[in-house]
Amino acid sequence: MTITTGARFRALSIITISVVFVLLLLASASHATNTVTETFEYRVKPGDTLWQIAETYGPDGRDIRSVVATIERINGLDGGILQAGHVLELPVVTG
Predict the structure, then answer these.
(1) Residue spans per domain, the chain
(2) Which of 22, 24, 50, 81 is the most buried (most CB within 10 A)?
(3) Where are the beta strands (DSSP E) in 1-95?
(4) Cα separation of 19 and 16, whole Å?
(5) Residues 44-66: tens digit of each pLDDT
(6) Are 43 and 90 in contact (CB under 8 A)?
(7) Three-state SS for 12?
(8) What does the pLDDT read at residue 85?
(9) In the beta sheet, which residues pair with residue 91?
(10) Per CATH, is 37-95 categorized as 3.10.350.10?
């Protein structure tokens, strides 16, 4: 079975367009998840960890590591060490 040059060109064009479309979707989804428009204050309790806070107050279905990174970024934290009484800004979950 021989594939003509025209058919090969059409197949490559469809694949290329599909890849570009997927990359654009991923880029827009990444941008949407990294943009925080509203926050609320949370006072750290003894024994709290960023991981626990992210699991409790982060969006359902979102990778907890991403939520922790967002909380660290919003609050200028490095290393995730918390002290009881510290007030954190947490992203508001909508939808």
Answers:
(1) 1-35, 37-95
(2) 50
(3) 39-43, 87-91
(4) 5
(5) 999 999 999 999 988 888 899 99
(6) no
(7) helix
(8) 95
(9) 39
(10) yes
